[in-house]
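Loading example: each entry is read as two labelled lines plus one structure line.
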Amino acid sequence: MTMNAALPGALRAATPVYSDPAVAFIAANDFDRSTLVISRDRVAAQYDALHAGLGRAHIHYAVKANPAPEIIRLLVKKGSGFDAASRAEIELCLSQGAKPGNISFGNTIKRASDIAFAHSAGVTLFAADSEAELDKIAAHAPGARVYIRLIVENSLADWPLSRKFGCAASALPALLDHAKAVGLVPYGLSFHVGSQTRKAEFWNPVLDQIAPLWNAAIAAGHDLQLLNLGGGFPAFYGEHVEAPRIYAASVMRAVAARFGNVPQVMAEPGRGLVAEAGHIAAEVLLVSRKSADDMHRWVYLDIGRFSGLAETEGEAIRYQFVTKHDGGDTGPCILAGPSCDSADILYEKRPINLPLALGCGDKVVIRNCGAYTSSYSSVGFNGFPPLDVIVL
Amino acid sequence: MTMNAALPGALRAATPVYSDPAVAFIAANDFDRSTLVISRDRVAAQYDALHAGLGRAHIHYAVKANPAPEIIRLLVKKGSGFDAASRAEIELCLSQGAKPGNISFGNTIKRASDIAFAHSAGVTLFAADSEAELDKIAAHAPGARVYIRLIVENSLADWPLSRKFGCAASALPALLDHAKAVGLVPYGLSFHVGSQTRKAEFWNPVLDQIAPLWNAAIAAGHDLQLLNLGGGFPAFYGEHVEAPRIYAASVMRAVAARFGNVPQVMAEPGRGLVAEAGHIAAEVLLVSRKSADDMHRWVYLDIGRFSGLAETEGEAIRYQFVTKHDGGDTGPCILAGPSCDSADILYEKRPINLPLALGCGDKVVIRNCGAYTSSYSSVGFNGFPPLDVIVL
C-alpha cells in the first residue's frame, strides 16, 4: 500500500458513506493487493448500540466473524464476552486479555484435546447438541456448564442455517438428563435464528418454538440459567435493516414476553457487530464481453470467492460497490474473481449494474465486508495472497 | 504428527490401495491435524504415463492444482513445462529451477504489473480472450506470443466449466487481428474440455468445435503454431477412468485426426497429474443423530469445505473414504466439516455410506486429494489451521 495524493474525486465526495473512516482511508490510499480496511471506532459504536438495545443480555462476540486481534482487544476493553469456535480462537481471546469466564466454547463439534485445553485454561461454558459431545465434554472438562443447541425450523433469515447444528426438540429432554447423568451442569439452551435476519419480528416464530422447550425443561427439574440467543443480527447490504439499538431492543422485548425473567441472557453477534465497520479496496483487472453481441459485460476483480468473498456462494450475500464512475450510465455485469477457477464467479444469475465507464485498473470499494472475509480467504489459491487486513 | 507403532490393522491390510506410499505413511503415523500426504514417486509415475500417452505434446503442469515446491522441482527435472495463474506461481516455478521459456502465463485475467513482471522474467507466452487483455499484454510484454482461449459449448466433463474463460467463436477472428495490430504474435488457440473429463471420447465434440476455427484462422493468414489442449485429464474418485497413458493417447489420436500435423501441441494436466498421488489423513470429531428417529447419522470430520475440501461444493467431487472399520456394516451419513459454518457440509443431498462402527477420534483416509485441496484451504477460518502438507 502506498499513499497517493491524487485521488479519484468521487471517492472523496461528500456523501454519507464517505464519512466512514475505512472508506476515507481507502479513498486516500493505493493498494498493491485487495485489502480489508476496518475501523475500530465503527466497531465500538456498533457494540455500544447493540449493548444499549440488548440491555442485560451479555454480548459474546462471535470471533469467527473477524478474528483481528485489535478488534478482540477493543471488545475486551468494552466488556464483551466471546463465542469461540476452536482452541485457536480461545487462545486469541486470552492473548488479548479476555477472562476465561467470559469465553464460551460454542462449537458443537469439538476436538477432545481442544475441550481439555479449554478446561485447563479456565473456560467453563460449552455448547453441545448430542450425547457423544456431552460425553467428550464430561471426559475432558468434568463438571462444566453446558447449553444445548436446538435446531430452528423455518428460519426467515437471508441465510437460513442448515440442520448441521442443533438437536431436534424431541431429543432435548434426554440430552439434558444425559448431561446431568455424566456430571455436567445443564445450564441453558441456545439456538440460532439464521444469519442476516433482517427484521426483528422474524425472531418471533423462532422464539415461539424455543419457549415451550425451555419451560418444559424447567418443569422437568432442570435449573436452567442461560438463554443463548445466538447470532443473526444483520448488516446493511442494500436492503433495509433496522438500526442496531432498535433491532436489539425489539428482540429483547420479544424474549421477555415469552421467557419472562430468565436469569441470564447471552447474544452472539458477529456480522452485526463488525460487517459495516470494514470495506475492501479492490481493483478491476479486466472488463470484457464474450462476443460483440454479448448482452453482459464480464467484470473481473482482483478478489473473488477464494480470496475473501466466500459469502457470495449461491449469490447469498450481495455486496455493494462504490467506484469513481458512480453517477454515470450503468449496465449489467457478471462479476468474477481473478483465479483460474471457473467457480470463482460472484454474481451471474442476478447480474449487478456497474458504471459503463469502469475499466482495467479502476479502484472499487466493496462495502460492509468486515465479517466473514479475511479469515475465509485461502492461503494462496492460484498463487494469490490472502486478503490483507488494515485495522484503523 | 507423531509416529505410532500401534496401528489400526485394517489400514495396513494387504489390499491394493495400501501399496500406495502416501496411504502407507498415513497408516503408520498419527496426526495432530488434518494433513495431506503426497508422494513424489506417484506424481513421477503419473507424469511418465501421461507423457508417454501424449507423445509430442508438451506437458505444462497446472501449478494451481498443487503448488508444493517439491512437486514443482520434481517436474522441472522431468522436463515438464508449467501453466501459471499468477506472478507468485511464476516465481515459484523459477525458484524451483524452471526455465522461463517453459512457463506459460495461462490466466486470461492478469494484473498489468504481473504481466510486466513475467515479461521481465523472460516469460514469452500468454493467454488472452479479450481485446482489453491483449492491450494489457501489448503494453507490458511487447511482442509476446499469445494464444486465444475459446469457450467450449456442451462439455461432458464431471465439472463443466462456466463461461468465465474464453471468447465466443464469433469473436476469434477480430481478436487474432487485434493481437497482430498491437504488435503481438498470434501464436495459437486454447480451450478446456472441462475438469474431470472421464472419457477420452468426450473430447471429440469439443475438438470438432475447435478444428474449424483453427483452420479458418490459418486460412485468414495467421501462422498459428500452438494448439493448447488445456486440462481435463481425470482422476479416480470411484467412477471408472481410463489409465492415463491410454486416455492421453486416445486424445492425441483424436487431435491428429482433426488438426493434422500442428507444429506444437501443449497439454495442461493438473488434477490428472497429482490428485491420485495424495491422500488426506483426517479424524472423526463427532458422530450423532438429530433425534432418536433420524434416518441419517451426521459424521463430522476435522476437515471441511473451508480447510481443504472446497471441491465438494455442490457435491461435485465425491471423495472416497477408508477407515479401520471397512468391511463392517455401513449406513448412510451426512458428512460435514468442523467449522461453525452451516455451509460447511460435504455430502448431504447424496449421503455417503460409512461403517456403523465409526466413532469420535477414528482416523479417516480421504483418497486421491492431491489436487485442489491444500491451496484452497482458508488461512484460519474459525481458528482452524490450514491443511498441513507432507511431501514424501
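Chain B has two domains: 2-38+279-391, 40-274.
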